[in-house]
Design brief:
The complex is a heterodimer of chains A (161) and B (611). By secondary structure, chain A is mainly alpha-helical. Chain A has a domain of 88 residues: Cytochrome c-like domain (Cytochrome Bc1 Complex, Chain D, domain 2). Helix content of chain A is 32%, strand content 0%. Chain A is globular, with a radius of gyration of 15 Å. Helices cover 6% and strands 35% of the residues of chain B. Chain B has eight helices and 41 strands. Chain B has a five-stranded antiparallel beta sheet, with no helix packed on it. Chain B has a five-stranded mixed beta sheet with strand order 4-35-36-37-38, with no helix packed on it. In chain B, strands 5-41-40-39 form a four-stranded antiparallel beta sheet, with no helix packed on it. Chain B starts with a helix and ends with a strand. Chain B has one domain: Methanol Dehydrogenase, Chain A, CATH 2.140.10. In chain B, strand 24 and strand 25 form a beta hairpin. The chains are: A mainly alpha (161), B mainly beta (611). At the A-B interface, helix 1 and helix 3 of A face strand 32 of B.
Chain lengths: 161, 611
């Protein structure tokens, strides 16, 4: 498990998340590719339902600013555990109380922006509104981790299946 | 007293006012006493009335035997059993409970959104007289650990009483379908749900909370049957005053006697999020006037976060139903580190035990042992394994303590492999049945093992407080097993093995000496209660996680009913919303269950069988 092993960055991350009101500070020293917090683009408000007449500007296609960053994937995995996403959606996202995040099915849209919206706003059948707890960067990191599932880039993939 | 209430409950509200008139106009009692059951085994004595035609309580009787004195269907003719009716309940999730029958009406409570259907048994089309929709809060869906199940209702005094996933308990007029009262028992904002079937005892409704995977504080409440008012609340952690441990408390073991153990056996304040929920079955002894039930795991699953004995989690309680005061408690497993909830059924029966008649409580445990206790005192009389067990080598009857295997103790940051049974236990919630004619208890068991790693859990109210990474798999040999167990002889008499899946349905046994149960791949089976020989089977449309029950129809003929709707913790792996490539998903059961996707799909069927 990434959160309990290895490098100092993740040990610090694990300790920090014990305080559930935590806010992400400057992160880990080896982090270079992701923009600093202050430059992190806000999460766009994407409509969940159809828009009468269609949308003028499709914000659902806006990308994840930390997509592909290996540090973001690892941190996203650590947050996925620390914020108890794993308790509902399965230790490695395979589902349980909440639906699988490993498969291709997305109830509220599967683009990075749409997933980020679901995380921030919550959804009706029990998904909490995590925008009250997570910074935009943490949300993007988690979304990046979800996007890596079933790819060679997935950190700490499920073993023994 | 209990029998009197049953009698009252059979009367319509109008005639109930005139008790004598009512009891004489009732054609034949729909409940019978021990003396009216033929062929009782030597030394076996039933302690509560049995349903004879009707089925008013989750287990049929208060003692939780799930034995029916009906015998029209027996070992000689059960092979001719055929479907007489089917109905979809409309909710394709795990159907863990059982219907009730009151007169010519069948009552079905569905998984969330917890519709209550009243079905007219006099019409071959089985139309609904009415359906009551409690409008339960959909946010509850996301905090239910193990599917959005409901384990059934109870009937008395003209009311159907059941709980909703959003932690309310509701009484509905059995005639009209109108809500009589509704009481909020728990709070979904902190992760409390209710999945259990309330038990009506005299003028009390006994019901407890679920949420042991979300760090809730377990409790049971006693509601007033007339008004729904909460008359008492007993927590399972914390100070004695809140556990309702008072002057009447007389546990058998010294280790249970010190004051405020619900606080002192925990790290500072951890009892406040310590679990010990009550989501299984409640039994009642009308002679001793005591209720019995078990409590769930300490939260979180990471044992390093709850050092100590963690009283009163994984404990059997005996309480006074009137005021909730504890009479005794026996903690089956101090400091659980494997998620061995012991909320399983407690079957109450008097049996000849080592030369004298004793009041027994038989508890086939998730830990893999059949526990036999003296239900007057809480003394442990027997604890023998009925499935492969390696977390403990056995129990010391003098102290009531398990001899834990040091190699299987779990901890944070280390993977402990091949622990048996897995967290789902040697059996789950699905209840056993006991026949007074054979003296055997029929236990629906399974054999799974697990790798378990404690992980630091962060308490965030209303979200999982789990603290473990777990992967389960089939144990050596069989996967499921129906075990016919002799509680006095402390041995397995016969068994039926299922090499494909765990046995996850309840069991019914009848005076026709037929045992009914279902399998996760959908077979509903009848076997001989004495030999285990299979007599009949029928393939239902989905997996069976419900409990068989039997009743007399308006035509005077015996019928057997069962739900077929896969789900529950292990069964939910059949759902498309759970992926088979993460064996740690669904709290670790995917590893043991991924083949279920080929054998069962979500469904919501009620099947009724007759000759």
């Amino acid at each position: 498990m990434a959160i309990s092993g290895g490098d100092a960055c993740h040990r610090r991350l694990a300790a920090a998340t014990v305080i559930v009101t935590l806010t992400w500070t400057t992160g880990c020293s080896e982090r270079t590719s992701a923009p600093p917090v202050s430059l992190m683009p806000p999460i766009a408000d994407v409509p969940v339902g159809p828009v009468p007449g269609g949308v003028r500007e499709d914000r659902s296609v806006l990308g994840n600013p930390v997509a592909g960053d290996p540090d973001a994937l690892r941190d996203g995995r650590a947050f996925f555990v620390a914020y108890n996403c794993s308790g509902c959606h399965g230790d490695h996202g395979g589902g349980g109380m909440g639906p699988s995040l490993r498969d291709a099915s997305w109830i509220y849209g599967g683009s990075a922006a749409e997933i980020a919206n679901s995380v921030v706003q919550g959804r009706a059948h029990g998904m909490p509104a995590w925008g009250t707890r997570l910074t935009p960067e943490q949300v993007w990191q988690i979304v990046a981790y979800l996007g890596s599932m079933r790819t060679p880039r997935e950190p700490d993939p499920p073993a023994g299946g | 007293m209990f029998r009197w209430l049953i009698l009252v409950s059979l009367c319509t509200p109008a005639v109930a006012l005139v008790l004598m008139g009512c009891s004489t106009t009732e054609p034949a009692s729909r409940y019978v006493h021990e003396g009216e059951v033929a062929g009782l085994a030597s030394g076996v004595h039933l302690i509560s009335d049995l349903p004879h035609g009707d089925w008013h309580l989750p287990a049929g009787d208060a003692a939780n035997t799930r034995f029916s004195p009906l015998s029209q269907i027996d070992t000689t003719n059960v092979a001719a059993l055929k479907v007489t009716n089917t109905m979809s309940t409309g909710v394709n999730r795990g159907h863990e409970g059982q219907p009730l029958v009151v007169g010519d009406t069948m009552y079905v409570i569905t998984p969330f959104p917890n519709y209550l259907h009243a079905i007219d048994l006099t019409d071959p089309a089985a139309p609904r007289r009415w359906t009551y929709d409690p409008q339960a809060d959909p946010r509850a869906v996301g905090i239910a650990c193990c599917d959005i199940v409901n384990r059934g209702a109870s009937y008395a005094d003209g009311k159907i009483v059941f709980a909703t996933l959003d932690a309310h308990t509701i009484a509905v007029d059995a005639e009209t379908g109108q809500e009589v009262w509704r009481t909020r028992v728990g709070d979904i904002a902190i992760g409390e749900t209710i999945t259990m079937a309330p038990l009506i005892v005299k003028d009390r409704v006994i019901v407890g909370n679920s949420g042991g995977e979300l760090g809730v504080r377990g409790f049971v409440v006693g509601l007033d049957l007339d008004s729904g008012e909460e008359m008492w609340r007993a927590y399972h952690t914390g100070p004695d005053a809140e556990v309702l441990i008072g002057p009447a408390f007389a546990p058998f073991y010294d280790t249970h006697r010190e004051a405020n153990l619900g606080v002192s056996t925990w790290p500072t304040d951890k009892w406040k999020t310590g679990g010990g929920t009550a989501w299984g079955w409640v039994s009642y002894d009308p002679q001793l006037d005591l209720i019995y039930y078990g409590t769930g795991n300490p939260s979180p699953w990471n044992p390093d976060q709850h050092a100590g004995d963690n009283k009163w989690t994984v404990t059997i309680f005996a309480r006074d139903p009137d005021d909730g005061q504890a009479r005794w408690a026996y903690q089956i497993l101090p400091h659980d580190q494997w998620d061995y909830d012991e909320i399983m059924e407690n079957v109450l029966v008097d049996m000849e035990w080592r030369g004298r008649r004793r009041k027994l409580l038989i508890h086939p445990g998730r830990t893999g042992f059949v526990f036999v206790l003296d239900r007057e005192t809480g003394e442990l009389l027997s604890a023998q394994p009925y499935q492969p067990v390696n977390w403990a080598s056995g129990y010391d009857l003098a102290s009531g303590l398990p001899r834990k295997n040091p190699d299987k103790l779990t901890r944070q940051g280390a993977v402990v492999r091949n622990i048996c049974p897995s967290s789902t236990g040697a059996k789950e919630f699905n209840p056993s049945a006991l026949s007074p004619r054979t003296g055997l208890i029929y236990i629906p068991a399974h054999n799974t093992c697990m790798d378990y790693e404690g992980v630091e859990a962060n308490y965030i109210a209303g979200t999982p407080y789990l603290g473990a990474s777990v992967r389960m798999y089939q144990g050596t040999g069989h996967h499921g097993e129906l075990v016919a167990w002799d509680p006095v002889g402390e041995r397995k008499v016969w068994s039926i093995k299922d090499n494909r899946f765990p046995l996850y349905s309840g069991v019914l046994v009848t005076a026709g000496d037929v045992v009914f149960f279902g399998t996760l791949d959908g077979w509903f089976k009848a076997v001989d209660a004495r030999s285990g020989q299979q007599l009949w089977q029928f393939k239902t449309g989905s997996g069976i996680v419900g409990n068989p029950m039997t009743f007399l129809g308006p035509d005077g003929r015996q019928y057997v009913a069962i739900y077929s709707g896969i789900g529950g913790w292990m069964g939910a792996v059949a759902y498309p919303s759970i992926s088979s490539d993460d064996p740690y998903a669904a709290l670790g059961v995917v590893g043991a269950m991924k083949d279920i996707k080929r054998y069962a799909s979500p469904s919501s069927m009620l099947y009724i069988f007759g000759l």
